[in-house]
From TrEMBL:
Gene3D superfamilies: P-loop containing nucleotide triphosphate hydrolases. Residues 2-240 form the ABC transporter domain. It is a peripheral membrane protein. The keyword Disulfide bond does not apply. It comes from Halobacillus alkaliphilus. This is Cystine transport system ATP-binding protein. It comes from the Bacteria. SUPFAM superfamilies: P-loop containing nucleoside triphosphate hydrolases. It is found in: Cell membrane. Keywords: ATP-binding, Cell membrane, Membrane, Nucleotide-binding, Transport. CDD domains: ABC_HisP_GlnQ. InterPro entries: AAA+_ATPase (IPR003593), ABC_ATPase_HisP-typ (IPR030679), ABC_transporter-like_ATP-bd (IPR003439), ABC_transporter-like_CS (IPR017871), MetN_ABC_transporter-like (IPR050086), P-loop_NTPase (IPR027417). GO terms for molecular function: ABC-type amino acid transporter activity; ATP binding; ATP hydrolysis activity. One of its GO terms (cellular component) is plasma membrane.
């Protein structure tokens, strides 16, 4: 489903991603862990071309972007439709209700009629447990509820891949569980997901593969039971010791 080949990205002189390659099969969950500043968010943002790498190529399903050549805005728009992104700080429209937030993508991106978009948004919000909160505004919701709207919004355009950028790290501890629960449900449905998170229990339970990043590189990767219990690389060992 995802094929990332030799991606490099720099901001000015700072090289943030160094020759990253990553494959994700359909229906698999990949969790990315690593210290702050190691390039995890940038890697996700490259996957939906919120950041454009200088080198390499990314394929999602049938579409490939080669970054050594000029990529048009139209190609980027089409490419981006294949992914749904969930942000750390939710990024909801404050002046839209929950249901309007979820309808927005289908209406503007897919040109779906309003009534149909609403129907679908209601279904998705029900699925994330927010049937009672359809008509309220983000400020009337808890952080956990806002993030569940964020997930619903990302799902609304039927993305082939869902990307999660530290989706629980802005939440009070007691609200983390409800968001992880929704993510587990999506994983169990066989959605392809790439998740940056510090929630190691989620990684252990849900990930098919865990990648440890440091300093713009994938230092080590493997099944969670192997990577967490028997890390090979010294840097991985150090990191895991710190977060235990
Ligand atoms: P992580 O998600 O692992 O914390 P990031 O991908 O956010 O790491 O950041 C990697 C590095 O890139 C950091 O040194 C960060 O300061 C830098 N960086 C990220 N975004 C930008 C940007 N837009 N401009 C300049 N530097 C950036």
């Amino acid at each position: 489903m995802i094929n990332m080949n030799n991606i490099s990205k720099q901001f000015g002189d700072l090289v943030v991603l160094k020759d990253i390659s990553l494959q994700v099969e359909q229906g698999k969950v990949v969790v990315i862990i690593g210290p702050s500043g190691s390039g995890k968010t940038t890697l996700l943002r490259c996957l939906n071309v919120l950041e454009q790498p200088e080198e390499g190529s990314i394929t999602i399903d049938q579409q490939t972007l080669k970054f050594s050549e000029k990529v048009s805005k139209k190609e980027i728009r089409e490419f981006r439709r294949q992914t749904g992104m969930v942000f750390q700080t939710y990024n909801l429209f404050p002046h839209f209700t929950a249901v309007e937030n979820v309808m927005e993508g289908p209406i503007t991106v897919q040109k779906v009629a309003k009534a149909k978009a609403r129907e679908k948004a209601v279904d998705i919000l029900t699925k994330v447990g927010l049937h009672e909160k359809m008509e309220v505004y983000p400020y009337q919701l808890s952080g956990g509820q806002q993030q569940r709207v964020g997930i619903a919004r990302a799902m609304a355009i039927d993305p082939k891949v869902m990307l999660f950028d530290e989706p629980t790290s802005a939440l009070d501890p007691e609200l983390v569980g409800e968001v992880l629960q929704v993510m587990k449900k999506l994983a169990a449905e066989g959605r392809t997901m790439v998740v940056v998170t510090h929630e190691m229990s989620f990684a252990k339970e849900v990930a098919d593969e865990v990648l440890f990043m440091d300093n713009g590189m994938i230092v080590e990767r493997g099944e969670p039971s192997v990577l967490f219990e028997h890390p090979k690389e010294e840097r991985t060992k150090q990191f895991l010791k710190l977060i235990k």
